[in-house]
Amino acid sequence: MQIYLVGGAVRDQLLGLAVYDRDWVVIGATPEQMLKEGFQPVGQDFPVFIHPKTGEEYALARTERKSGKGYTGFTYHASPEITLEQDLMRRDLTINAMAMDDTGQIIDPYQGQRDLELRLLRHVSSAFSEDPLRVLRVARFAARLAPLGFTVAAETLALMQTLSAGDELDHLTPERVWKELERALSEASPATFFQVMADADALEKLLPECQSLQNPDQLNRFSRACEKTDQPFQRFACLLSICLSSASQHEITGLCDRLRSPNTFRDLALLCHQYHKALASFDSLSPSQRLQTIQGLDLLRRPQRIADLMPCIKALHQNIHCDTLPIILDKMGRLQPRQLMSQGFSGAALGAELEKRRLEICRLSPATKDTPDGPTPR
């Protein structure tokens, strides 16, 4: 039994990046031997085991053969006779197909170290074009490593285009597409993800709503937005506000439902799409428009929304004028129904008076804005 550190941990260590997850491959072992050593089995498609102390994944060396459509259409074969080189050959990119033994020696049969130096994302073998998920994965790796100067090798991009031209991408599930998109939104350069997807002719098939990013100005705008926030759900909200600026709320919801994005992503995207322009120019809105914005966002009951939205507003707009918003919200928060009830208001009259006084608070102007404890201009 021989054990090697493989994949991203080796790549990131050679790049001088922090290593967060470590994966291991085991050569010359059987499932029975792994169980005897105390490893716990996981999964059914191929033998992967959890280390009893570290909780890290150890996979038996395996090969794979295309047996159907999509990224799940493979038959795996694990055996003690399979070599390290055979196991590494099934991986996507050369920089992910390196291993390290317990002495620190690098095993690199497919020139991954060379491609690290050349800053190239290059496929290991022609079998790359059998797995449609690799189109998304390469785009995501490009988004992660673009700041280090990495680009996709021309021959690898050609294979990605071949995948896009066929029907393999049609077999990717919405959950898998979303998972890769969400990860890409967490990377250093999310805009690069969409650029590579467009170059691979995959954007129209998988994320047609984002085709406007093929316009350099739109792509640059999204790139600048991503520099203002590193939170994936805020970047997603900015993405949809840029790509679907003239879309309806129903269309935004339809996209989120199709991708099966989490509610936190969908809800912020909807709010940002509808209100980012109003919030960016809040000071110049009429009192009634200000009140409609505050009520539409339900900010008095859900103040956290403004904390989530403001990074998006700052990312989408160069000039923001909403100095009066926090003061107005503070004053409205201090206006309690029970105060009006003590003055004799009740029922419909109470609601009308509350609305009247909130509208009066919204008359605050930037030129005369006062402290939260000061008087409200009339």
Describe, in short, the structure shown:
The protein is an alpha+beta fold and 378 residues long. 50% of the residues lie in helices and 10% in strands.
Give the tags.
single chain; 378 residues; alpha+beta; Beta Polymerase, domain 2; Hydrophobic Seed Protein; seven-stranded mixed beta sheet; two-stranded antiparallel ribbon; 18 helices; 50% helix; disordered C terminus
Q: How would the global form be characterised?
A: elongated
Largest sheet: 7 strands, mixed
CATH superfamily of the domain at 1-118: Beta Polymerase, domain 2
The CATH class assignment of the domain at 1-118 is Alpha Beta
Hey, roughly how much beta strand do the residues contain?
5-15%
Level-2 CATH architecture of the domain at 1-118: 2-Layer Sandwich
Poorly predicted sequence stretches spanning 5 or more consecutive residues? 371-378
Number of helices: 18
Number of strands: 11
Structural class: alpha+beta
Roughly how many Å is the radius of gyration?
27 Å
Give me the side-by-side strand order of the main sheet: 3-4-5-2-1-8-9
Overall pLDDT confidence = 91
**Helical content class:** 40-55%
- The SSE order reads EHEHEEEEEHEEHEHEHHHHHHHHHHHHH
Distance between the termini: 82 Å
| CATH topology call of the domain at 1-118 | Beta Polymerase, domain 2
